[in-house]
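WARN no homologs supplied; continuing
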Amino acid sequence: GNYVQLGPIVFLTCRIVLSNNGSSTGAVRITGLPVTASATSALFAIPINNFTGITLTATYTQIAGTPDSGATTILLYKSGSAASVAELDTSGTDIVADTAAITFTGFYYV
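OK structure emitted
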């Protein structure tokens, strides 16, 4: 991925491809942002432009991320027309394949 910091805003674009998911379970996170997010960054969503190899629970159709306040992590959430927003979580019925991939472009505050 790439990023540019302009004052208090970080613009980023990234493509992540897993090579082996292993036996991980729980909430899905992206770690390693280039700059720590501010507390106000949690108010903004980073849209996931494209995803493959991820099977969502019935009625969910989209994924978005939110920067974790005071951290270098993006928390991933799922949403759908007939469902409330919830964390993307492999402990339940969400499945992330060994070769899952996501692409996103967005910004957050530092």
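The CA atoms of residues 77 and 87 lie 4 Å apart.
OK
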